[in-house]
Amino acid sequence: MTRRARIVLLLVVVAGALALPAAAWAHAVLVRTSPLPSSVVNRPPPLVLLTYSEAVEPRFAVVSVTNAAGHQQIAGPPRRSATDPTTLVVPLHRLSQGWYLVYWRVISVDGHPVRGAFTFAVGPNPGPIPQFPVPSISETAATPSLVTARAIVFLSVMVAIGLFILRIATARPVVRRVSETRLRAVSVAFGIAAAIALIATPVYVVMATAQFALRSVFDLGNVVPLVRDSAFGRGYLDLELTFALFVLAAALALWVDRPERPQRSIAELLSNAGALLAGGATLLVPGLSGHAAQTSPRGLSVALDWLHLVAGSVWIGGLIGLLVLWWSLPVARRVAGLMVCVPRFSNTAFVSVLALVGSGVGASIIHLPTFSSLWQTSYGQALLVKIGLLCAALLIAAVNLLRTKPRLAASHDRPEFGTGTAALLRRLVSGEVLLVSAAVVAAAVLSSLPPPAKALATAGSAVARVGPGPVAEVVNKNGYRLALHIAPNRAAAPNTFAISVTKGGRPLRHATVIAGFAMLDMEMGTQTHVLPERAPGLYELSTPALVMVGHWGLSFEVTPPGQQPFTVVFVDRTTG
Amino acid sequence: MKSVPLLLLASLVALAAGVGACVVVILLAVDALG
Predict the structure, then answer these.
(1) Which of these, A37, A390, A570, B20, has the minimum number of CB atoms within 10 Å of its CB?
(2) Which residues pair with A487 in a beta bridge?
(3) What ipTM was assigned to the predicted interfaces of this complex?
(4) What does the alpha-carbon distance between residue A95 and residue A429 come to, in Å, rounded to a whole number?
(5) Closest to B24 (Cβ–Cβ): which among A242, A256, A276?
(6) B28 contacts A285? CB cut-off 8 A
């Protein structure tokens, strides 16, 4: 492939990456409940059933069912349904007539806490819905300490694997082609990164488990036994085990390696194969224990996640390895050493970047519900930051590819180029390392944020965003003027939804107005209610339909007499 | 001194570590995807 063809290919893939964001993970979302939210049941239910989009851990689940006086109605701890692992079963005492608030907090398979609440009533005459105290239902795994620990784990594991690959494959010929050079510093850097990863991984998993269990991280006696109770904890312990096996295999491979010989011995080939197998296996663990394994098509999701991590590891580890090499080579042999290593790394990095961007694009197509969720959600915004950082790093990489690499090659014939080019390379690679490391930190933030629910796709056609607080919004559609009023627009409380429809200043009478309520942060389907006409052109209903704090898609389907219906959609934000 | 038997032993241990890591991941995959 010519240089120009490579650059065109790179630009096409980068454009693809900008058009579609990089890999994302979803969280557990509530998809079904029994009793239904806001429903009135005539017989007291013996159980509350909560069905999620994926299996959750009953050990970490907190569910409360309280009456208007705040008295607990739970008869036992939540347990997993014997027939459906995605359903939590919560036994209840015998309920009397009245309204009840269900509050739940669960831990996703990927280790993220998710909370929610809804109401239901036992009839036939439950009376008016009381104002329940709504507990906080926003909780994040993106606390500064957890994000820092997560980023350290990601970075150190990826850097260690990338450094090993650079040492064993890319930089190996330096020893043979440039006299009196060694690669010991690269091996030491690998050892440091590996040690950090081996310490950081258990520290992170204990910190995260303490947060799930709502305990102090220093309460080790109670927290450590809980680590294996979550799929997330088991996954990270598997990561620690496979990474430790990789470190053992890689250390032996480095010990066996004799870089001064061009041909590798059987022992070298066997040990390298062992280390690469273990490294590849290690990078498969995050996808298998995280959300990639829960997202259909699961095999493809896991494969893309693995490819993303492998490519990222080769890139960031190789860049750091180049810096270590620059620093450790004797000054008189620095340029000669870099002339051997840099072109080889450029080729590897080029393929890695293509794989990184391609796998990110593929994962995005699988995961993101709408293109607009890129800038409309905090998750999407964090994703844009990550893409921006990677693009900046790619620009520097392009400068290295187009300027530094040819100048290094030219310094073979014109030695006066050598020193300046080596210094330029060090500065550019340092900048690239900072940007890629920042992108890894952004990935740690990203994987700690709840990604947009698929229900958001239904809100793509919203005419306005309203709330929090009382709403008075006027929109025009099909020649009609619609004035929406919501009061008080609070979760778990009766809210009045009034929509006044006029055309040419005259009220639209005898229309059919159907309101639809869809929780956008969850996957719970849509509740529909007919809004009766209270006054000429005024359609109004009081209902506790907004049962949770968060974003709601409110759709109003208006059918004027004898005409085709039309629909307006609002995105409403409610608070507790 | 790196004798040939020692080098071979070390490489076999490294290979066993790699295979062990693969076994861990296969078990995890069966648990997660199965």
Answers:
(1) B20
(2) A496
(3) 0.97
(4) 67
(5) A242
(6) yes
